[in-house]
Write a structure and sequence with these properties.
The protein is an alpha+beta fold. 22% of the residues lie in helices and 38% in strands. It has a 3-stranded antiparallel beta sheet.
């Protein structure tokens, strides 16, 4: 049984976005973009690596480059204390 997205986020998983730039097989001088998002665990990003391994094995398009962006982990709200009060 798969874990829920919320339970993964509570364990430090975060939304990761991979933009894959690849050469179009029929037109190898042209580059196209593919964007994929998943919950993943930084800094190893096992799901992104699994996806890229699948791409290299099963898809004819050669990868030019990959850009990765990820969000913050889900955490309890931070509460701070004010050291100074400003009066107007």
């Amino acid at each position: 049984m798969q874990e829920s997205e919320l339970s993964l986020q509570l364990k430090g998983w975060r939304l990761a976005t991979a933009e894959v730039l690849y050469y179009i097989p029929d037109h190898p001088k042209l580059i196209q973009s593919f964007v994929w998002q998943t919950l993943d665990l930084a800094p190893a990003y096992p799901r992104i690596h699994q996806f890229l391994d699948f791409w290299r094995r099963e898809i004819d398009a050669v990868i030019h480059s990959v850009r990765l962006a990820s969000g913050e982990t889900l955490a309890p709200a931070r509460v701070g204390r004010a050291d100074h009060w400003l009066h107007h």
